[in-house]
Amino acid sequence: MKTALITGITGQDGAYLAEFLLNKGYFVHGIKRRSSLFNTDRIDHLYQDPHDRNLHFKLHYGDLTDSTNLIRIIQETKPDEIYNLAAQSHVKVSFDTPEYTANADGLGMLRILEAVRLLGLSETCRIYQASTSELYGLVQETPQTEKTPFYPRSPYGVAKLYAYWITVNYREAYNMYACNGILFNHESPIRGETFVTRKITRAAARIALGLQQDLYLGNLDASRDWGHAKDYVKAMWLMLQQDKPEDYVIATGISTTVRELARMAFAEAGVEVEFSGKGTQEKGVVIDADPEKWREMGLEESPLRPGQTIIRIDDRYYRPTEVDLLIGDASKAREQLGWTPEFTLQDMVAEMVRSDTRLMLKDRYLREGGFKILNYFE
Ligand code: NDP
Ligand code: GDR
């Protein structure tokens, strides 16, 4: 049985990858951070009692900023494969916490590589680094490939640039099997709520149900190559199953603006939106609401009226330096790994809106049934 160690197992990709590897018969170890509230929602369905004789899944407390703890976990678990997914992964937040982001996202990978090397596991342990299309930053060429020059535009991107190069350096210096997956944006119903896709699908569900009045966004002109996390974790695994370690771009090859994504998500929730105005004055206004959709949601009539403004701009969501356009060319992954995405953006947005609508309906039923959200101080 192969053994994998996943850092960042409580995150979106960690959860999908853990499930994927368990289905392939791996023993999966994961590193989770200690927090004052439970942070394992995304992997609770995979949890196994440590006393289970057929144990395949085990969590360890740890942090990428703590090398002694990483050394201990790697020594104890002796993994065949390490997937380094842990990171302070929010680009905007990295401008507020640049030093921490550099420590976790940049030096974190160095700590893992050094631990593997010092423990004498270089020949048996294969390592994946979660690199990112944010490395490209300021547009140099499109579509972006493994050969496109990097020009990161945020503390997050710069930290990930260090992790990218230290992975390449350890591969060349010590002959380690270490790969960078340069993954473009990928999303899912379990995406963090402050990333723009999930922020929009969640708001579309809430606004269509009358639980929220409006949605504030930042730069609607930014364009991203959005795929589905389920497709992308498969590519991570494929990269570690090759004869030679290499770096690969993983992307769909289609780029869509935030504005268009918002239009798609609201349409999935049965609300037709039209945008007008420029810059921070731009607005998304309701044109129509689909009666079939609002009846499906158990509403007698839509809470929305044509002409109502439901999307507004708040410049607090703008970044000091923006990445305007990402569009990836995954030809190398297609040819060498045999990887192609199965989900379209439309499929994914529909899945996310459906999932958020179910979550919001639950919320509404609880309120209507007189059950309040638990308030510790009441
Ligand atoms: P998430 O933000 O959903 O998950 C990040 C994970 O890292 C969480 O488990 C988080 O723990 C953990 N983590 C954060 N800081 C530390 C730390 N100091 N020590 C240990 N664990 C830590 O990210 P995704 O799943 O979306 O992304 C996975 C990786 O892929 C990240 O490295 C990200 O930068 C990278 N990436 C993501 C892309 C995307 O579009 N999703 C695209 C390209 C790269 P907790 O749950 O406690 O917060
Ligand atoms: P990104 O994802 O920065 O590409 O990083 P995010 O969803 O945060 O932003 C995408 C684009 O949308 C614009 N935007 C907004 N973004 C957020 N979060 N909130 C808003 O209200 C908003 N309005 C407009 C942003 O300016 C940006 O242009 C993600 C992360 O998962 C990284 O970890 C990963 O490396 C990259 O994708 C690839």
UniProtKB/TrEMBL annotation:
Its cofactor is NADP(+). It is an enzyme of class 4 (lyase). Keywords: Lyase, NADP. GO terms for biological process: 'de novo' GDP-L-fucose biosynthetic process. Residues 5-352 form the NAD(P)-binding domain. It comes from the Bacteria. Its EC number is 4.2.1.47. GO terms for molecular function: GDP-mannose 4,6-dehydratase activity; NADP+ binding. SUPFAM superfamilies: NAD(P)-binding Rossmann-fold domains. It catalyses: GDP-alpha-D-mannose = GDP-4-dehydro-alpha-D-rhamnose + H2O. InterPro entries: GDP_Man_deHydtase (IPR006368), NAD(P)-bd_dom (IPR016040), NAD(P)-bd_dom_sf (IPR036291). PANTHER family: GDP-MANNOSE 4,6 DEHYDRATASE, GDP-MANNOSE 4,6-DEHYDRATASE. Catalyzes the conversion of GDP-D-mannose to GDP-4-dehydro-6-deoxy-D-mannose. Belongs to the NAD(P)-dependent epimerase/dehydratase family. GDP-mannose 4,6-dehydratase subfamily. This is GDP-mannose 4,6-dehydratase. The gene is gmd.
